[in-house]
């Protein structure tokens, strides 16, 4: 996200947005905001490379939740 529409800077400046290694072309730019990532996010983000044979195992529980109105997800 390089443009924050419908929100003043006083609001989006508190959102934690970071860019790492992204290539900005044709005048695109990114403005970091917020306090940065928490240590729990950094730990989760640090998954090292794994063989492609493990994709099924790693993503077993990935996907949308099957939530129903009035029930717990």
Automatic annotation (TrEMBL):
Record keyword Signal present: yes
Database matches in Gene3D superfamilies: Single-stranded right-handed beta-helix, Pectin lyase-like
GO molecular function, one term: pectate lyase activity
Keywords of the record: Signal
InterPro entries noted in UniProt: AmbAllergen, Pectin_lyas_fold, Pectin_lyase_fold/virulence, PEL
PANTHER family: PECTATE LYASE 18-RELATED (PTHR31683)
Descriptive protein name: Pectate lyase
Organism: Nymphaea colorata
């Amino acid at each position: 996200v390089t443009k924050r529409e419908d929100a003043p800077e006083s609001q989006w400046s508190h959102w934690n947005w970071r860019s790492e290694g992204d290539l900005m072309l044709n005048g695109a730019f990114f403005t970091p905001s917020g306090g940065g990532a928490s240590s729990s996010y950094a730990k989760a983000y640090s998954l090292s490379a794994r063989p492609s044979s493990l994709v099924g195992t790693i993503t077993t529980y990935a996907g949308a939740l099957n939530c129903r109105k009035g029930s717990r997800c």
